[in-house]
Design brief:
The protein is mainly β and 128 residues long. Helices cover 0% and strands 58% of the residues. The protein has a single domain, classed as Immunoglobulin-like (Sandwich). It is built from no helices and 14 strands. A hairpin with a 2-residue loop joins β8 and β9. The two termini are 24 Å apart.
């Protein structure tokens, strides 16, 4: 049997936030997630590992790819993913491969060899 508790006015079942409309949200080491009653799933994450862009490729600088596991698995690979980045030097952004239901691989890019930043994403798809 699980546990139910109220924390700050929100209901938590087995450590997961459950609102009155059936929306669930939570987090783990892979990021944050929100499941809506209509089947929509949104996962969010920002890497704590700084990326750099030392390799020149036709006037753009790139770095080592990073693979991210979604905090909750999507129902299928039909996922809309927006990459995000925090810029620490040079104009920094990231691109990604086509996401699969369990995660995505992303690549840091910059206009400068000294480009530095933190990659992240917002992924939207279905959980049911």
């Amino acid at each position: 049997m699980g546990t139910l508790e109220f924390i700050g006015g929100d209901l938590f079942a087995n450590g997961k936030n459950v609102s009155e409309d059936g929306t669930e949200s939570g987090s783990n080491e892979n990021g944050h997630w929100t499941k809506f009653p209509d089947g929509t799933l949104i996962c969010r994450y920002r890497s704590l590992v700084q990326s750099e862009t030392p390799t020149s490729r036709a006037g753009i600088f790139s770095g080592t790819n990073q693979s991210f596991v979604f905090p909750v698995e999507f129902m299928n690979g039909e996922i809309s993913l927006s990459s995000a980045s925090v810029n620490l030097g040079g104009f920094f952004w990231s691109i990604n491969n086509t996401p699969i239901k369990t995660g995505v691989t992303m690549y840091p890019l910059s206009t400068a060899a000294s480009g530095k930043g933190f990659m992240g994403y917002i992924a939207t798809g279905r959980w049911k």
